Each structure stands twice: as C-alpha cells, then as structure tokens.
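Hi V.,

You were right to ask for the full record rather than a summary. Here it is.
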Amino acid sequence: MSAGDSVDLAELYRTHHLQMVRLARLLVDDLASAEDVVQEAFLGMHRNRAALRDPAAAVGYLRQAVVNQSRSMLRRRRTVRAHLKAAEPEIAPPADSDVLLAEEHREVLRAVDQLPPRQREVLVLRYWSDLSEADIADALGISKGTVKSQASRAMAALATIMQEGRDSDG
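Predicted structure:
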C-alpha cells in the first residue's frame, strides 16, 4: 500500500484478524474476550480511518489498538472483581485443552500468566508475534530501552518461576 491509498479494511481483516485474535488471547486469557477486543480494534480503526496518516502503518495501528483494548478489558475486569461480594464459580477449561498443548507449554503459559502485565505484553509481542524491539515499543508506547529491560526482567522472572515449580514438584 502506498501512502496515497486508502486503507482496505476488508483485506486488513482477512489478512490479520486471526493473528490479532491470537495476540489478544494471550493478553486477555480467553477467546471470547479476545474476539471482542479485536472487533473493537477494527471498529475503532473504521471510525478513525480518515485520521490514519499512513495506510501502510495500518497493521501497527491495529496491533496497538488490540494491546490498548486488552489493557482496558483487564482494567475493567479488575474493577468488577474488586467489587464482587461473592466469588464467581470457577469455569472448567474445555475438555480438549490438555490435548492442545504439551505439558511444558502449559507450564510456560502458567508462568507467563504470573508476570506483571507490561512484562507479559513485551514477551507476547516479542516471542509470539515476532515483533522487533522498535515495533514493540511503538505498540506499547514505550522506549526501546524499556522494551529491552522489561524483556530481560521477564525472562529472569520466568526462569525463577519455572525453577520454583520444578523444585516444588520434586
């Protein structure tokens, strides 16, 4: 797409919808919420389509919108949970979830879930979405140095969490 082209939202949707749902799924932790997040990101992009200065940057804009929508959803969840008087019943995972992931992957995902949100976002964008430090910095609105330090801290924390898990099992 050249800078003079308009954004083809249908093509953007066809090409990047699944990738954005996967990204959101890792950030918000359930598929239905992830789909809602991505839908909101696409709607926001549609509403602000005229303001998009560089149509070639549409994917980056969309990715940033997904990250921001995910953060908003998590904030809303925290607020709701803080005000609940009774605990919500635990929902069992789908019966086939054990088949979908090997045990070591589940271990890593459980460890990633224990990281602070910023560290989790950096790792998901780096290792799941395979973004560069510059792209991650743009998506999260932080500096490249912050991306590096958050990634380093996250990897150290993951190693500690994983080791503690092994120590408690053995």
